[in-house]
Amino acid sequence: MKTVLSCIQPTGEMHLGNYFGAVKNWVDLQSEYKCMYGIVDYHAITMPYDIKKLREHTWDLIMDLVAVGITPENLFIQSLVPEHAELGWIFNCFCSYGQLTRMTQFKDKSQSENVLGNDQFISAGLLGYPVLQAADILIYKADKVPVGKDQEQHLELTRNIAQRFNSTVGKEYFVLPDALYTATPKIRSTADPTRKMSKSAGRKHIINVFEEEQRIRKQIRSAVTDTGTAEEGKMSDGIDNLFELLKATKADASLIKQHEDDYYSGTIKYSDLKESVSDAIVDMLAPFKERRKELAADKRKLKDQIRASSAVIRKKAQETVNEVKDLIGLMKVKN
Ligand code: AMP
Ligand code: TRP
To answer: In the chain, at which end, N or C, are there fewer CB atoms within 10 A of the end residue's CB?
Structure first.
């Protein structure tokens, strides 16, 4: 069975954009591949963050992921597998400084308000971020990495590091991983459908997966439908987004068709469409909420499970790091 690995940063609540755009795909991949999903808290400290909240965000995200269908055995927390950082250090020496400075994510993040507003402090960790990402992937010899297109450059860098390492040691030691791009719905902000649903845009632009029903309905009711930007004969971004949500939630096919027919015949009432979208979202989220409530009632149990799964996954990471150290002349720790 091929190995799939992906990771997510613990930066707050999971919204519908995260769910439909990535996490749902992770859930589905579990039936086809051996999957490993990491909560990458070492990555989270590359940008200004709240020390008091990081651990809480990590556990909250774990609970969210398990509630929507990720198997606990497939999850690990990066800082519970410190070998990622060790391999990351080694990989720093197999990656050129110039290539890192050319990463678009580094250029964007180092110029973002979040960093510049913070004394213009750009951490070296932010520059090294993709090297640590390469370690996350290669440490498990993962075959496939489900990510968005924005991570293409980081995957390319990962392969470059693997190749440089392999040619240095004269052995095809690392598997060259491939990105796994799955067509997933792109969800836009309901408050401003010209932009994508994103935490950085602000609270009114996101609908969280574990949101109160009333707030979901209110937000959909006030969704912008006409942005005045649509070309003749084309759906506006706002309407398109509502249909996208309706389809993504797997609402009843005949209901979707009815709304589409009404739209194209010009008889649609947007309030009806919005009500269907709200109903579909609320119905889809109900079992997730139920599951999360159960998980929250026994946090200790889940935390113990994740510590255990991280320990199991760590064995593989330790094996790789030991082999790598051996191959390049470093000392192995004797147990
Ligand atoms: P936990 O239930 O595992 O999140 O831990 C409960 C409390 O123990 C936390 O709120 C921390 O104050 C402390 N704690 C847990 N893990 C660590 C750690 N790795 N280093 C320092 N303090 C920790
Ligand atoms: N950089 C990824 C992102 O911003 C997160 C990430 C870290 C990751 N390590 C990874 C993704 C390893 C895939 C594999 O979304």
So the answer is: C
Q: Is the shortest distance between the CB of 137 and ligand 2 below 6 Å?
A: yes
Domain count of the fold of the chain:
2
If asked whether residues 210 and 131 sit together in one domain, one would say: no
Average pLDDT of the chain to the nearest whole number = 95
Q: What distances in angstroms separate CA 175 from CA 60, 62, 135, 162, 277, one per listed residue?
A: 33, 28, 12, 7, 44
Give pLDDT tens digits for 47-57.
Answer: 999 999 999 99
Q: Which protein residue has the closest C-alpha to ligand 2 atom 11? A: 7
Is 289 assigned a catalytic role? no
Residue located nearest, by CA, to atom 3 of ligand 2? 8
**Same structural domain, 99 and 218:** no
Pocket residues for ligand 1 (CB within 6 Å)?
55, 303
pLDDT, tens digit (0-9, with 9 covering 90-100), for 149-182: 889 999 999 999 999 999 999 999 999 999 999 8
Whether 245 and 316 share a structural domain: no
Domain residue limits at 177 = 3-184+298-327
For residues 264 and 314, state if they share a domain: no
Q: Does any ligand 2 atom lie closer than 6 A to the CB of residue 136?
A: yes
For residues 166 and 288, state if they share a domain.
Answer: no
DSSP 8-class letter at 288: H
Ligand number with the minimum distance to the CA of 136:
2
CA–CA dist 306, 71 (Å, integer): 10
3-class SS of residue 194: coil
Please report, for the domain that includes residue 269, its CATH number: 1.10.240.10
Q: Which residue lies with its CA nearest to atom 18 of ligand 1?
A: 55
Q: Say if 149 falls within a structural domain.
A: yes
Geometric angle at alpha carbon 197, from 19 and 135, rounded to 5° = 55
Q: Which of 141, 199, 303, 316 is catalytic?
A: 199
Q: pLDDT by residue (tens digit) across 7-30?
A: 999 988 899 999 999 999 999 999
pLDDT tens for residues 207-227?
999 999 999 999 999 999 976
* Rounded CA separation 52/220 (Å): 33
